[in-house]
Please model this.
Amino acid sequence: MDAAQLRTITPAANEIIAGPAILAIDAERAVTERTAASGVRVFDRRDALVRGRVTLSKDGRRIEWRPSRPLRAGAYRLSVEELATPDGDRIDERLDVPFAIIDAAVKVPDNLEIRAFRMAAPIAGGIDTRPAGDRPRGESLALIKAFDRKTGEPVELALDREGRRVDLDAIRRKAAEAHAKHLGKVTPALARMMAKGPAPKAGR
Model:
């Protein structure tokens, strides 16, 4: 058995996971429970082993790894090595798959392979984007760049907290119209500066 007989590995290399981490390897032939338990491991960014549980499907072709406790946001690496079939055929090539976990309170469809993720919130005149771990008060959106797992097509979308797709351009237009109605030609950036008040004078 060679590495070509591993059909799919989830996550893909450099994928971003938003939500519970369930890592999966699908093989063309069944593998043994013993080699799956010893050959599928996860390491954190310091290369420390992450505790987790490995399970096999009934036909032995799907391996799943689940963490013993929820993974913290950060970089990780899935390591797959020395799997074997009940007949003794082996996969000798080692596979290392880097991936990242983010702390995001947004439901993301399972069919998306995330490559970029930002949080956003409507503000006067437009949209304020923030890092993935930020959770803006009030209305917030997730801005996602991804690939569809089935078709491989690139996808760009905005989701609300419940995972519903929203029209980002419509939100931008609404914010800009509201800003123009109240502040006219004052730019959004200038409006925010005015709201903060004058800058303190430097001491002599």
